[in-house]
Design a protein that fits this description.
This protein is an all-alpha fold. The chain folds into 2 domains: 1-135, no CATH class; 147-277, no CATH class. It has helices spanning 2-35, 61-66, 72-95, 102-121, 126-142, 149-181, 192-205, 209-241, 251-263, 265-276. The longest helix has 34 residues, at 2-35. The protein is globular, with a radius of gyration of 20 Å.
Length: 277
């Protein structure tokens, strides 16, 4: 019974995640446009309200799909609803609906929000990172059963250093490609937002375990990049494939490694030992 209750809570949490995934990037675009000297305030589109004005049933992808009014955004709504319902149910099945693990549900919703925004806009917003760090600190203040402040600080530093190294490698790759082919890389492999996300995840799981999250990010990111390249080659052909550089969002892969260690530390330890051996 508690699993079904948790799945229902996940379905309702998806409503907030989807609204924030629409509202936060729109507000960010509006802020950037207002700073531009070439854009007038009157020409800017209105930022959608955080609280929906449409009927409630239109705010869920599930009901919109049943009504035959599903568009691209509605399918994303439905995907988030299914993912969070399954995630909340699995957390409840593993840990139960107890107060000390209540933050596990909050982290799942934040992970979904960060991943959706990065996939759709290639942005990792500071507000979402601050929420993740604030929840980590609040969890320690209320319960203090996973990390100590020293380990949280160590995780932030390790995540920042690892992310900076990966960013420098991507920057060097862009310079090398420009010097060899005379073609600049418009987007680095690893962005500054990914650095801050690794640092925030380090606060969440600690300095030693952020190394595991980075390893999982590299493995899953490599598989995703290879799959995207093969898909693009099959869909568009060799000639059209060369017209643009391929860039995949790395936030979902960072969050995947973090989630594995956060929710299943025993399985993560076993996986890490098998990879090392």
């Amino acid at each position: 019974m508690h699993v079904l209750i948790a799945a229902l809570l996940g379905f309702l949490a998806a409503l907030m995640v989807n609204r924030l995934a629409d509202y936060l990037p729109a507000r960010r675009y509006d802020q950037l446009a207002r700073r531009s000297p070439f854009v007038s305030a009157q020409s800017l589109p209105l930022v959608p309200p955080l609280v929906p004005r449409a009927p409630l049933w239109q705010c869920f992808g599930f009901t919109r799909a049943l009504a035959g009014k599903a568009d691209k955004r509605a399918w994303r709504y439905l995907a988030v609803e299914l993912a969070l319902s399954a995630a909340f149910g699995l957390i409840a099945y593993t840990y139960g609906l107890y107060l000390p693990v209540s933050f596990f549900y909050i982290y799942a919703a934040l992970f979904a929000l960060i991943a959706v925004i990065d996939i759709e806009h290639r942005w990792i917003l500071p507000s979402t990172l601050m929420a993740l760090i604030a929840c980590s600190a609040l969890e320690w203040l209320l319960f203090g059963w996973r990390n100590v402040p020293q380990e949280m600080l160590r995780g932030a530093l390790n995540g920042c250093l690892i992310g900076a190294c990966l960013w420098l490698l991507g920057f060097a790759y862009g310079k090398l490609k420009k010097s060899l082919r005379g073609k600049a890389v418009g987007r680095t492999i690893f962005g500054l937002g990914d650095i801050w996300l690794l640092s925030a995840c380090g606060v969440l799981i600690g300095g030693e375990y952020i190394l595991f999250a980075t390893l999982m990010m590299m493995l899953s990111g490599g598989v995703a990049a290879l799959g995207a390249m093969l898909w693009r080659l099959a869909r568009r052909g060799q000639r059209r494939r060369r017209r643009g550089a391929l860039a995949i969002p790395y936030a979902p892969h960072i969050l995947l490694g973090t989630a594995i260690w956060l929710y299943a530390p025993a399985a993560a330890s076993s996986l890490l030992r098998s990879l090392i051996n």
